Amino acid sequence: MQKVNVDYAFYLNEFCCGGEATLPSGEFEKYIKRAKLEVSGLGGKFYTDFEDEIRLCLCEVAEVLYSAAKSGNIKAESVDGYSVTFAENYNVRDRLRGIVVQRLGNTGILYAGVE
To answer: Could you tell me if 77 and 84 are in contact, meaning their C-beta atoms sit under 8 angstroms apart?
Structure first.
């Protein structure tokens, strides 16, 4: 296994396709590192055979982590009656797991059995 690198240029050009970025450049490295921890914690291995798939997955996970941190996990908010409903932490985990399975599920990277 070799290290898979994701830079801000890849994020902007490939993941965002030149569109508007969710992650600001100053926060990118921090959230990509967190994304790597999350993906590896869910069983993802960083094989260079699937470098683009892994990079895209990491970008999407980083965006979800950034958005969750920025929003404080607020699920709903009412201004007049001042009611705030917080999302449970497992909702973010479920979303991350879904991203990893969707992006990497057919690559064999998540396979935990004996080969």
So the answer is: yes
